Amino acid sequence: MLTTAVKRVARGLLVVLLVTIAAQALLSLTPGGVAEGILGENATDENIAALNAKLGLDQPPWQQYLDWLGGALHGDLGSSLVSQQPVREAIIERIPVTFELAFLGMAIALAAATVFAVVGATRPGSRIDRALNAVSSVFLSTPGFVAGPLLVYFLAMQLPVFPVLGWKPLSDGLGANLGSAFLPALAIAVQEIAALHRLLRTDLISTLGEDFIAAARARGMSGMYVMFRHAFRPSAFSLVTVLGINLGRLLGGTVIVEVLFSLPGCGGLLVQSITSRDIVMVQGMVTFVATVYVLMNLLVDFSYGLLDPRVRKVMTA
Amino acid sequence: MFGSPRMRVAAVAGPLALLLAACGGTSGSTGHASGPSGDPVSGGVLRAVLVSEPHNLDPAILQNNNRGQALLGNALYGTLLTNDPETGEVSGDMAEGFTTSDSGKTFVLTLRAGLKFSDGTPLDAAAVKYNWDRLKDPTLGSNSIQDASLIASTEVEDGTTLKVTLTRPTPRFGGNVILSSLDWIASPAVLKNGAQAFDADPVGAGPFALKDWTRGGALSLTRNPSYWNAPKPYLDGIDITFSSKADQRFNSLQAGGADVSMIEDWGVVAKARTAGLQVDVEPVGGGQYIALNQARAPFDDLAARQAVSAALDLDALNLAINQGNGEVADTFFPKSSPLYNDIKLHSYDKAKAQQMFDQLAAAGKPVSFTFTTFQGSEKIAEAVQAQLSRYKNVTVEVEVAEWADTGRILGKHDFDATVAAVTFQDPDPAVARAFLSTSPRNSVGIDDGRLDDALKAGSSTAAGDARKDVYTTAVQRLVELVPGIFYQREPLVAVAGTKVGGLDLYGTGSLLADGLWLSK
Predict the structure, then answer these.
(1) Within 10 A of A58 (CB to CB), how many other CB atoms are there?
(2) CB contact under 8 A, A90 and B194
(3) What contacts B64, CB < 8 A, 6 or more positions away?
(4) Cα separation of B56 and A303, whole Å?
(5) How confident is the model over A293-297, as a mean pLDDT?
(6) Which of B139, B241, B408 sits opposite A36 (nearest CB)?
């Protein structure tokens, strides 16, 4: 078990390293640079050369990468080339927003998807199941950049309950914080509801057809008890996998929604850094996102053992 | 205002005559609603939504225009000078005077006595000297380097007097000050502590001081009790958020989530009028144009430029990009300008355009070009492409570039056609910066002796009919040489709820902070 865990972590670290190399390579290949971005209209060759020298960008890309990696291995992710803000500080500043959005969005999605799936799986093919499937199809084809403006129109403008944009930190009070987080979280949740509902419904229908479920029903157990005590856990494998992967993606930054609602999260920072070619900030963000992804995948892998003892035995063996 | 993230294709409102007829704010503005009447009242926190968040709070980095962080800069650092948006006349604010006695070779800046930064240290001539001298450092990355580079030297004469010597006579150098970061002075001592320390405590002498800033989120300002111009500021504070989407900013205003915003999209301006919000439009000249690069084919050929210009129906473009709400730039100067002339910037002639395209093709030079546009400005390029597709012997490709690539594309003339803007109340320095052959910002590569002479004369001629004449010549040359096709005025617009008083714009859509107030 320990050996397996160490191997997985080592692979994860390798993935993070390769991702940072790829980020450096890709940004080096794109036209324009941070100096041109900063100087804008004043980007003469002399000014660009002077600013590149000042920022240490007159070195070849591999040298820049090794310099950055040397610092990163000592816990120093450097400072933004554009704002001079330390990268670690910038990420730490923005993590709470992105994490709150991701977890809140996923919680809404999981709650709605569970209700949809349980209702549908209990009466597969019924009118209500078909109706829920139709709703799910609509949700699945409604990306965040469509859901966001629609939610703003109905829940912030027609019915001015939530703010159109902006973020209120927890220090402003829980109500204000949740008020500013709800619409973006709902915009994130829309597509996730569809994905989770379909997976869970299919697995539940399959599980409910198993012999041990028939046996449980024969013992006179109620439908809901059978559903949540016997059917739900074995049906949650696909759900946990997708939940973990999607949560990892969201924790890396809910880009579109953050930009749409002007939220101070990691996604917005990543987009801003890429467009301004702020390679140091991009590297820091990429390292963070890749690490979150790897960790989420590890957690998903190890959670299988918790869900099913048979998996635990295989992993131990 | 040329190139850079300020170059964008916007959308449009009603004709200028109509814009100047009604009144919403104090800047020769218009709108369907007006602000509160009566004397300003103190108190309240105003919620503003600006277009773009600054990377840091150094006044050298902030951009003094409607798409930048003008309100923030004015709030933190105050203004040395402002101008009347109707006439362009520059007047003193923290500076009592900014005068020249030798036709603009040297200036004397006279500060008000007793000015203090918010930390109690004096804002004196030495502080101005430090701020102005550092702006010339190219590695600082200041958008104002062009204006600062006109300064050859600065000399402190006493606590309130700074002598400024320019590299060339520029009688209206005050215009450069109000259009740039030269207008904003920060504490030299705090600037010397480095960017991080400065961002934590940006010390200026403006009506407000920083309370807190969550990067990517909100920025809160609190009243500066030691502001020089009591009883201003009237507000207790200003909370600023940022959104690059004009529609989102308008939605926030309409839903009551914000009190004031800058809008750079004519279509959204029209919505704001319909919604009964205050709309303060600054009357400006020039506008947004399709820049045609004369440094390479096909637009090194005047006939190709004239053909494309004649081929475009600007009303149809307006319909495509602004749903018809735009203000087409039919003359170079607005009617309110003392330099106004009635020379038409553009004539649509379908038959003539086709004839020219055919002639060029017959001469072995069929017009084929790439329209390089930037993210968020695709509409104009696509609309031009659609219009030109109806002609024979002309082909257009559309290429969407990232904003980070703006400097390279414009600085190295690496485009055939792109979007640009030259916007002004007084044409100097903006027009010379865009079209003078020796200007580093002359991205279209225009090089015309008569135009150069006219622009130089316009820059060095003080005022009156002589100046009007030279600018008439300049406009004629611009029309004849077609360095670009002006398709709309740039919207410099502040939009506010009806409870907001004291909307006052100067420069290029720079909203003053100290006069703002909220009715109870």
Answers:
(1) 14
(2) no
(3) B70, B73, B144, B178, B179, B180, B181, B183, B184, B507, B508, B510
(4) 44
(5) 84
(6) B408
Which of B65, B220, B252, B374 has the highest number of chain A CBs within 10 A, making it the mutation to test binding with A? B252
pLDDT band of A313, cuts 50, 70, 90: low
Q: Do B139 and A90 touch (CB under 8 A)?
A: no
B433-471 pLDDT per residue, tens: 899 999 888 989 999 999 999 999 888 776 777 889 999
- Sign of the C-alpha dihedral, residues B484, B10, B331, B178? negative
In the beta sheet, which residues pair with residue B424?
B285
Task: Say what the pLDDT of residue A307 is.
Answer: 65
Average of per-residue pLDDT values in chain A = 85
Distance of CA B163 to the CA centre of its chain: 27
Residue B271 has pLDDT above 80, yes or no: yes
Nearest to B91 by CA among B177, B182, B33, B16: B177
Q: What is the pLDDT of residue B155?
A: 96
Residue A166 to residue B217, Cβ atoms within 8 A? yes
Residue B14 has pLDDT above 80, yes or no: no
The answer to whether B257 and A167 have CB atoms below 8 angstroms apart is no
Cβ density class B332-363: b for 16+ within 10 Å, e for less:
bbbebbebbeeeebbeeeeeebbebbbebeee
B217 to A264: CB separation less than 8 angstroms, yes or no: yes
Report which DSSP code applies to B112: P
Return phi, psi of residue B441, to 5°: -95, 10
Laid out side by side, the sheet with B95-99 consists of B95-99, B106-111, B161-166, B151-158
- State the CB neighbour count (10 A cutoff) for residue A224: 10
Q: Which domains does chain A have, with CATH numbers?
A: 1-87 (no CATH), 88-316 (1.10.3720.10)
Is the Cβ pair A166, B405 closer than 8 Å? no
What HEC string does A136-170 produce? Answer: HHHHHCCCHHHHHHHHHHHHHHHCCCCCCCCCCCH
CA distances in angstroms from B167 to A39, A212, A278, B170, B457, listed in the order given: 22, 91, 35, 9, 16
Q: Which residue of B has its CA nearest to A263?
A: B217
- Is residue B317 within 8 A of residue B467, CB to CB? The reply is no
Query: Over 90: is that where the pLDDT of A306 sits?
Result: no
Burial string for B296-315 (b: 16+ CB within 10 Å, else e) reads: eebbeeebbbbbbbbbbbbe
Residue located via tokens 């006219």: B454
Q: What is the pLDDT of residue B462?
A: 64
Does residue A70 belong to the interface with chain B, where contact is any CB pair within 8 Å?
A: no
**CA-CA distance, B383 to B444, in Å (whole number)?**
21
CB distance B215–A42 less than 8 Å?
no
Element (H, E) at B286: strand B285-292
C-alpha B368/C-alpha B304 separation (Å) is 9
pLDDT(A156) > 50 = yes
Measured between alpha carbons, how far apart are the two ends of chain B, in Å? 38
Tell me the residues of chain B between 284 and 303 that have a Cβ less than 8 Å away from chain A.
Answer: none
For chain A, the residue count is 317
CA separation, residue B164 to residues A91, A216, B9 (Å):
44, 92, 37
* Chain B nearest-CA residue for A54: B139
User: To which residue do tokens 């998807």 refer?
Assistant: A113
| Interface contact A253, partner B, CB < 8 A | no
Average of per-residue pLDDT across A144-157 = 90
Say how many Å lie between the first and final Cα of chain A, rounded: 8
Higher pLDDT, B31 or B41: B41
Helix runs in B425-516, H state only: 430-435, 449-460, 465-481
Here the tokens at position A179 are 């008020």
Residue B489 and residue B504 in contact, taking contact as beta carbons nearer than 8 Å: no
